[in-house]
Amino acid sequence: MASPVDDGDAPPRDAVASPPLLFERDAVLAPDLCDLLCALATTGTSQPVEVQPAGGADFVVEQDVRRAWEVDVTDEVHDALVDLVNGLRPELAAWCGQPLEPCDAVAVLHYPPGAFYRTHRDVNDDAVDPAIARRVVSVVLFANSAGESFAGGTLRLFPSGEDESLPPLDIVPRAGRLVAFPSALLHEVTPVDHGDRVAVVAWLQAAST
Q1: Backbone angles phi and psi of 190, in degrees to 5
Q2: Structure pTM?
Q3: Which of 93, 147, 167, 170 stands 20 to 30 A from 155 (CA)?
């Protein structure tokens, strides 16, 4: 059974994870920005999110692997989200133990009922885009909370990879929270049972030498 990471009901942090597995900050997204992102997700325009097949092929929509939609946002909103991530970049670099390039892009993702992302890693040595091979830190900012706006949609991390010698670690979405983890870590988003899960994702790359 996965160990939830949420609030006071969670087991002690050193019982389930220790750096550099997980970086967390609460209240990174302001409530009004959370509300705006949720409104855009459900009333604005969006496109199905693509994935890269094995072997380095071009990105394609494969909704049996990843069923989610990228939400269109204004440049102003996008830049504000980038600034939030970059504001934490020094702490993230210290946490992961290496210099990081500034974040230059984020994506706002909408997971409606039935949406999910199967087990995967965010770094890929065979990627068409070489920047993907340099990803070090994956960042997720939650715009709404599980149990209030939606059910399901848990971010599940697999500390042991495929060998399953350690239990998975569940991150319960909570509005405003930022979590970061190594991009090479195996993880998934479990299916959304009902409601609309909205989150922002970004990746920080290793600084060029």
Answers
A1: -70, 160
A2: 0.88
A3: 93
Choose among 37, 12, 10: nearest CA to 140. Answer: 37
Upper half-sphere CA count for residue 85 (Cβ side, 13 Å): 27
Give the residues across from 111 on adjacent strands: 197
92, two tokens: 């993230």
The helix/strand count (H/E) of the chain reads as 5, 15
Q: Which domains does the chain have, with CATH numbers?
A: 21-44+68-205 (2.60.120.620)
Stated as kind and residue range, the H or E segment containing 34 is: helix 31-43
Q: Where are the beta strands (DSSP E) in 36-177?
A: 46-48, 66-67, 69-71, 107-111, 116-120, 135-142, 150-152, 155-158, 169-171
User: β-pairing, 192-195 with 186-189?
Assistant: unpaired
In this predicted structure, what is the pLDDT of residue 196?
Answer: 98
What are the CA-CA distances from residue 207 to residues 100, 106, 131 (Å)?
5, 18, 11
**Cβ neighbours around 51 below 10 Å, total:** 16
What the block records as the tokens of 30 is 């302001």
Residue 3 has pLDDT above 50, yes or no: no
